[in-house]
Structures are given as structure tokens and as C-alpha cells.
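Figure 3 (text version): C-alpha cells given as input.
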């Protein structure tokens, strides 16, 4: 059975390339959320032609959703020959902005030297296309399976996933009894299984001052200087402490096995949108967004207390120091057990395809597994797909066609195993 299935996937190589190129040529850039609907409809039409029941789900009321930029998701389901588990393949259709430094058109999907180049080829339209072709090969071969197979194309993963998997998980689309196993074909390298991700806490810290004329700063209170004092404490106290922590989670790359804190943005003084000459004012506000990635061994409340503790000590020690802090987003670490059915099914197929054991890894950043675990309460979920992790969000992003074909074989074999139909 596996030999026949693999032969069919090999024969679909050009179809896989064409499907990936069609997806990449729709510039679903997020933000703001361009072209979500036509991309979802492309996937939905493809599934309808193969007998899927297709539904479009708009993430109404989620961040960024509007009539101009609707958060349009698509999900398709095809039933097997009787009751049984459902295997769901989920891929996000949004991509980050192209940015500078490309040597090819980022939305032309150029094929060259066995690769497809373009924004979203690696992260993760190539993986989604591979999953679609994997399911198509099963259906075309007429291999009997129990339960159901599902495919979804969802939005906004690059900005937290609230209008996509987050919204749908709250509506029950990623929970039992509807779904039993989920594979997300994110680009974690074709011979790896990603079990989960580190935790994340984003927060905005604002230091407050008093406005005055810039020629007489002694009459005001500079919020930027207060933020500088906070930054100094972070550099001297917090970051060295985080560098010393290590996790047992198999996070890649190696540097991400420590706790980390990044300054995502900082602004003080005149409003960002101002383009003329600045006025001479003492800034009365300075805002900074911190990006704290933490380990499964750390308590989320302690993670926050480390930051607020520095702020409170400064308020007690530094004259005029006042601050505000607000949460932007937070997700706890998640890691599926290696013994979970979906992990073992994919691991067996990787061993069969590549002649070596799968490597188990954890992602340094989050992806949509967080919503499936948190809202769907579904633990049997992993990320597995083609694509090289380091290429995501880079100029000249590409995906290797051979890797897409190989991953399609792995996903097809795992789907049949999980539905009890593999041979």
C-alpha cells in the first residue's frame, strides 16, 4: 500500500509545484490581511472538486477583521467508510511582508534549481500544498480508511492566530469528537517532528514624566531617562539571569534553550507619525514592548514578577519614577508527549522515508498549536512539514521540491496509520 501511495505522490510532483505556486501568487500579506478570501476560495474549490464538504469561517470581531480585510478561513472534511478517528491537516495562509533584499519577485513563485522561491513558500504554503497532495493521493488511490480527513487553511498565524485557529478552536473545530489528531506542516525541516513551543509573554511598559521646554529640562521630568534606567536594570540584572537558565525541552536552535527577552520596539517623545522637525519638549511618555520567551520549567507568574519587581524597585528608589504595564499576549509552553499517537505515526513514516530516526524538536517561537491545546483541549498535535526553519521571513525564501514530495509521503502514510488503514 505504501509503495502504491508513494508512486502516486511522485506522479503528482508537478501538480504539487503548480498548487504551491498558485498559493504563493496570492499575496496574503499580514498585516493587514490582504487577499485572504481569494486564497481560501482557491483551497476550497480544490477540495470541492475532490468531494470534500467545505465551509468558510470568518473570524468575526477578531483583531484586524473588517469588511475590507475579512479574516476568512476555509475547512474541508471528507468521510471514510465508517466511524473512526479524524486526522486534520492545518496550514496558515498568511505571510509576512516581503521586505527588501530579494533577487526574484517575491510573489512570482519562481522555479529554479529544484526549488520554488517566494514569500510563503517555506512558511508555509509549500507545507500546506504537500498536505493537500498527500490527502489527494489517498483519495485517488481509493484506499479505504475509517473516520475522516480534514484540511484547513487559516489566517493570522503570523500575528497570533486569533482570527484563524484561535477563533475556530473556540468554536469547536479542533476538539474531540470532531478531530482526534492534528498535523501542522510548519517548516521545521523534513526529518524533524516539532512537539511544541516555548512560552511567550508580550507586554508594553510605559514610563511617565512631565512635559516642559527642551531648553529647561529641569522644569520637566524626562520619561525617556526613566525608561533608560529600566533598560539598564534589564541589561545588568535580568538578561544575565535568563542566560543562565536551560530547559530540558529540545528547543532549536541551541541558543533558544535559554530564556530570552527581546526589546521589540521603543518610542518616546513626539508621535511616530510626525514627519516634520521635532518641537523642543521634554517627553512625558516612553513606551517599550518586551518579548519574553520562557521555558516549560518556569512559572508564568514568576516570569511577570521578575519584570514588575524591577519596576517596583525603581519606583521606590528613583525620584519621580512612575510606570504603567499592560499585557499584549501570553501563551504558556506546550509540548506533546513523544508517545502520542500522531508523533509515533509520523516518526514511523520518517524512518521509512529517510532511513533514520526522526529528530524531536521544540520551536523557539509559538505557532497555532497553542490554540489547539488551549481552546481545543486536544493534546495529539504536532508540527511536521517541509521547509528549512531558518529561511522563514527571509528574503529569497524558498522550499525544496524534493522535500515537499517526501513530506507528502510521510503525511499520507501517517494519516492512513492513524485511521487504521496503513499497510
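Below: residues designed for each position.
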Amino acid at each position: 500500500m505504501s509503495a502504491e501511495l508513494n508512486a502516486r505522490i511522485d506522479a503528482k510532483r508537478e501538480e504539487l509545484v503548480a498548487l504551491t505556486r498558485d498559493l504563493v501568487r496570492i499575496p496574503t500579506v499580514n498585516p493587514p490581511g490582504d487577499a485572504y478570501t481569494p486564497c481560501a476560495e482557491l483551497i476550497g474549490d480544490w477540495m470541492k472538486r475532490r468531494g470534500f464538504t467545505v465551509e468558510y469561517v470568518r473570524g468575526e470581531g477578531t483583531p484586524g477583521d473588517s469588511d475590507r480585510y475579512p479574516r476568512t478561513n476555509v475547512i474541508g472534511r471528507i468521510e471514510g467508510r465508517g466511524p473512526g478517528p479524524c486526522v486534520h491537516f492545518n496550514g496558515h495562509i498568511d505571510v509576512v511582508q516581503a521586505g527588501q533584499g530579494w533577487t526574484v519577485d517575491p510573489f512570482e513563485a519562481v522555479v529554479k534549481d529544484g526549488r520554488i522561491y517566494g514569500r510563503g513558500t517555506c512558511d508555509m504554503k509549500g507545507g500546506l500544498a504537500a498536505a493537500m497532495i498527500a490527502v489527494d493521493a489517498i483519495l485517488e488511490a481509493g484506499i479505504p480508511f475509517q473516520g475522516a480527513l480534514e484540511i484547513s487553511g487559516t489566517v493570522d498565524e503570523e500575528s497570533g492566530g486569533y482570527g484563524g485557529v484561535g477563533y475556530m478552536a473556540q468554536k469547536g473545530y479542533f476538539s474531540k469528537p470532531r478531530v482526534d489528531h492534528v498535523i501542522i506542516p510548519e517548516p521545521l525541516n523534513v526529518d524533524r517532528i516539532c512537539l511544541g513551543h516555548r512560552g511567550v509573554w508580550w507586554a508594553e511598559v510605559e514610563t511617565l514624566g512631565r512635559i516642559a521646554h527642551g531648553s529647561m529640562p529641569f522644569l520637566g521630568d524626562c520619561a525617556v531617562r526613566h525608561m533608560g534606567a529600566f533598560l539598564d536594570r534589564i541589561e545588568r540584572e535580568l538578561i544575565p539571569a535568563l542566560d543562565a537558565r536551560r530547559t530540558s525541552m529540545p528547543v532549536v536552535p541551541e541558543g533558544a534553550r535559554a530564556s530570552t527577552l527581546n526589546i521589540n520596539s521603543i518610542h518616546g517623545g513626539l508621535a511616530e507619525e510626525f514627519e516634520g522637525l521635532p518641537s523642543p519638549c521634554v517627553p512625558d511618555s516612553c513606551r517599550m514592548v518586551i518579548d519574553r520567551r520562557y521555558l516549560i520549567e518556569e512559572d508564568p507568574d514568576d516570569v511577570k514578577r521578575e519584570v514588575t519587581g524591577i519596576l517596583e524597585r525603581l519606583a521606590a528608589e528613583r525620584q519621580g519614577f512612575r510606570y504603567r504595564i499592560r499585557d499584549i499576549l501570553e501563551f504558556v509552553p506546550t509540548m506533546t508527549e513523544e508517545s502520542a499517537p500522531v508523533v509515533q505515526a509520523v516518526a514511523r513514516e520518517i524512518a521509512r522515508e529517510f532511513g533514520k530516526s526522526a529528530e524531536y524538536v521544540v520551536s523557539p517561537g509559538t505557532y497555532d498549536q497553542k490554540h489547539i491545546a488551549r481552546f481545543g483541549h486536544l493534546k495529539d498535535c504536532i508540527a511536521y512539514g517541509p521547509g528549512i526553519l531558518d529561511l522563514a521571513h527571509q528574503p529569497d525564501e524558498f522550499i525544496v521540491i524534493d522535500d515537499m514530495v517526501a513530506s507528502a509521503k510521510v503525511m499520507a502514510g501517517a494519516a492512513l496509520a492513524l485511521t487504521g488503514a496503513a499497510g
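The chain has two domains: 2-197+334-418, 199-331.
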